[in-house]
Amino acid sequence: MSHQTASITPISAEAFTDQAKQLGFTHVALLDLAQLDAAWHDTRQAQLQQWLDAGYHADMGWMTRNQDKRLDPGALMADTATVACMTLNYYSDSPPPSCPDASTAALTMARYARGDDYHQVLKEKLRDLLAWCQARDAGFKGRPLTDSAPMMEKPLAAELGIGWQGKHSNLITRSHGSWVFIAELLINRRFADVDAPTPHPDMCGRCRRCIDACPTHALDQPYVLDANRCIAYWTIEYRGEQLPTHIAEHLNGWVFGCDICQEVCPWNIRFAQPTTEAAFEARPYNTALHADELLALDEATFSQRYDNSPVERTGLANLKRNARAATGQD
Length: 330
Ligand code: B12
Ligand code: SF4
Ligand code: SF4
Known about the structure:
The chain has 330 residues and is of the alpha+beta class. It has helices at residues 2-5, 13-22, 38-53, 67-70, 118-136, 153-159, 209-213, 231-237, 245-248, 260-263, 266-271, 291-296, 299-306, 311-314, 316-326, and strands at residues 27-32, 82-89, 106-109, 142-145, 164-165, 171-172, 180-187, 254-256, 289-290. It folds into two domains: 2-92 and 114-187, 3-Layer(aba) Sandwich (NADH Oxidase), CATH 3.40.109; 209-274 and 282-326, no CATH class. It contains 15 helices and nine strands. The longest helix is centred in the middle third of the chain and has 19 residues, at 118-136. The radius of gyration is 20 Å and the shape is globular.
C-alpha cells in the first residue's frame, strides 16, 4: 500500500503540532495509517451499517453513499500516508441559548452557528498549515477537510486520543468539553516520530443527563443518535415546507440547530472556555433573535446578515419555517 512506501518528511511531529497550535487549533494528533488497527474499520463499518439500517440518517441520503471512503481515513487522497486530526474550540461566551422563551417569541440558535462558517475558517487554517509544511518539504502534499467529505471524524478523533464520543455522540475533550470542531489534513508523507494511536477512554460513566434532557428522545439509545428525532437535523438539514408536529411542539425556541444535550453535559459546564478565534464570536443579532423580526426578514437583509455563516446554506425560507414552527404559527 502506498502509505508503506511514502517518504518521511524532515518536519518533526512536534514542529507540525506546534505550528498547528499557533494557527489556532486546540488539539492535534497524527495518525500513521500503517498503524491503524484493522479492527477500527470493522467496528465502524458494523456501527455505521446498523445506524443506516435503522434509518437513523432520516433523509440524509448522502450518508448512505461512499461508505468505503467514509470508513477509510486515507481514501480521499490517492497517496495518503498520514492523517492529521485537529480540533478547534468554538465556544463563544455569548448569552446561554438554553433559555429561549416561546411565550415572548424569543428564539435561539446553536452556538456553532452564531459566528462565521467554520468550514471556511478551518479550511483556511489548514491551507496555511499546508503551505508552512510545503515551505519546508517541497514534495509535501495535503488535502484539507472539515465536515466536507465522507469521513468519520468523531470516531477518528476518539481513536487518536483527542477525546471520546459521549452518549450524545459528540466528541468530548477533557480540556474544552464538546464545543470543538473537527478537521483533518490528509498528508502524503510519514513522520519519523509518530506513536501508535491510543484511543481515549469513555468518561461518561453513569451520567445520562443528555439523554434525559433531549426533548424529542433522539438519544434513547445511548451513543446513537436518531436524526428522525433530532431538532438539529430538522432545523438545519430538512428541506420540506413544514416541520412535523413531534418536532415542532418541542422546539422551545430553537430555530437553527440545537445544543440542549451539550449545554447540560457536566464536561461542558465545567470545562468550556471562550474561543480565542474572533470569527466564532457571536454576531450580535444571533443572540437576540425574535420571531416577529425573523419572519419579516427579506432576502437582501438575510444575505447580508448570514453571508459566510452556517445559516446561509439552510436559507431564509427554512429559517422562517423553523420560526413559524417554534411559535406555533404552522
Ligand atoms: C451527519 C451529521 C449530523 C447529523 C447526524 C448527527 C450524528 N450524531 O450522526 C445531524 C444533522 C443530526 C447533526 C447534528 C449535529 N452536528 Co453534525 N455532523 C454530521 C456528520 C456530517 C457525519 C456524522 C456521522 O458520521 N454520523 C453517522 C453515525 C453512525 O456516526 P457517529 O455519530 O459517529 O456514531 C457512532 C456511534 O453511534 C457509535 N456507537 C454505536 N454504539 C456505540 C456504543 C458505544 C459505547 C460507543 C462509544 C459508540 C457507539 O457508532 C457510530 C460509528 O462508529 C459530521 C461530520 C463528519 N464527516 O463526521 C458532523 C459533526 C458530527 N457535526 C457536528 C456538530 C457540531 C453538530 C451539532 C452539535 C450542531 C448543532 N448544535 O446543532 C449537532 C449535534 C447533534 C448530536 N447530538 O449529535 C460536529 C461535531 C463536533 C464534535 N465535537 O463532536 C461534526 C464532527 C462536524 C465537524 N467537523 O466538526 N450532524
Ligand atoms: S441536538 Fe437537541 S434534539 Fe438533537 S439529540 Fe441533542 S438535545 Fe436531542
Ligand atoms: S451529559 Fe453525561 S452522558 Fe451525556 S455526554 Fe455528557 S457526560 Fe456523557
